């Protein structure tokens, strides 16, 4: 007896298209940030820091907003896949964050690397909380969304 394997929403039907379109937009915005906020040896990596914090804020707001509006179906699911998974997933980058930390440490700036790591995590958590709070203030809980 074989169990049916779970296939994530992002890989079913048009889900992959929404993720792809959002991913293209998020990648473009991250590229713009890296072009306009360059960093050098021993300098704070503003581009990656900014996109990661912005992504945390957007994702916190978006997921709380969608939760308050109702079930994860139809247009709400498409928005979650396109903006949440696609856009925020490609806008934010753990790999570049890790590379920045490695470069700062290797280049002799361990305190800057530690500050960057701590600030990224701490301010990222604050950004998520601010996003969630903003969505709660903007949109009342839908009767449809209450369990």
Structural commentary:
The chain has 147 residues and is mainly alpha-helical. 72% of the residues lie in helices and 0% in strands. The chain is built from 5 helices and no strands. It is globular. The mean pLDDT is 91.
What's the quick description here?
With 147 residues, the chain is an all-alpha fold.
What is the general shape? globular
Task: Outline the low-pLDDT stretches.
Answer: none
Number of helices: 5
Helix content: over 70%
- What series of H and E elements makes up the topology? HHHHH
The computed structural class is mainly alpha
Largest sheet entry: none
Mean pLDDT: 91
Number of strands: 0
Could you tell me how far the N terminus lies from the C terminus, measured between alpha carbons in angstroms? Answer: 34 Å
Quote the beta fraction.
Answer: under 5%
Please give the radius of gyration in angstroms: 18 Å
Summary keywords:
mainly alpha, 5 helices, 0% strand, 147 residues, 72% helix
What does the secondary structure layout of this molecule look like, with pairings?
Layout: H1 15-36, H2 46-69, H3 74-91, H4 94-106, H5 110-138
Helix pairs in contact: 1-2, 1-3, 2-3, 2-5, 4-5
């Amino acid at each position: 007896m074989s169990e049916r394997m779970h296939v994530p929403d992002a890989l079913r039907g048009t889900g992959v298209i929404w993720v792809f379109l959002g991913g293209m937009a998020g990648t473009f915005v991250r590229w713009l940030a890296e072009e306009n906020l360059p960093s050098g040896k021993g300098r704070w990596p503003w581009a990656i820091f900014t996109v990661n914090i912005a992504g945390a804020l957007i994702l916190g707001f978006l997921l709380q907003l969608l939760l308050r509006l109702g079930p994860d179906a139809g247009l709400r699911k498409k928005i979650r896949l396109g903006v949440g998974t696609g856009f925020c997933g490609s806008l934010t980058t753990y790999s570049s964050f890790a590379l920045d930390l490695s470069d700062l440490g290797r280049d002799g700036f361990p305190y800057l690397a530690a500050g960057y790591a701590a600030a990224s995590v701490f301010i990222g958590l604050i950004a998520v909380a601010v996003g969630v709070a903003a969505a709660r203030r903007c949109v009342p809980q839908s009767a449809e969304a209450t369990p």
